[in-house]
Amino acid sequence: QLLLINGIKKIIIFSRDEFKQYKLQAELQSELNGVDLKFILGNIKDLDRLKSSIRGVDYVFHVAALKQVPAIENNPYEAIKTNIIGSKNVIDASIDAKVKNVIAISTDKAASPINLYGVSKFAADKLFTFANSKQKETGVKFSVIRYGNFYSSRGSIVPAFLEQKEKGVLPITDKEMTRFFIKLETAVKFSINAIRMMWGGEIFVPKNDSLKIVDLAKAIAPNADLKVIGIR
Question: Which of the residues are catalytic?
């Protein structure tokens, strides 16, 4: 979607996953439309690497995070280093590079958080909104988007249910649980629009589709038994 926007000269993909970078580079090679597409290996926990990579950039989408709830509960400090300290590094690097607008992709789980994933993202949201207190000095704007679950994203509930339905049993957290879903394409458009119109300090929340987890389970595997495993 970014490659279709007129006037974009350069896009930098900064991540620690060289295989996904390789795949993306191969997929987009014929669609560049004159845009300079650059791939940089790095980790947001490395502030110096971030600073050197972000120079000359106008807009930053901060998407990096650890997000698997059980893994984070078992590795709490790693979540803090990535989701909180890493987010602070994005802020500091953006200020150092005099970026125009920076937007962080957060989660609905940051609202009234009950697990470390939600708490760590809530803390990152606070860092981003607070960073605007120095906007007069720095000129950099920071905002946040809180999404729900992406349909069929890696490790999410839909592909998990599709895998498990053959076993005849689907694990659910709670029969009263409601999930909020959004299509990836819709989320990308929302992010691009938000970074264009932001003033700094907003927490944008799109109107997501909502459904009961029980209804989703029945739609995917109507004959499967539901096993309640408890809220994580």
Answer: 109
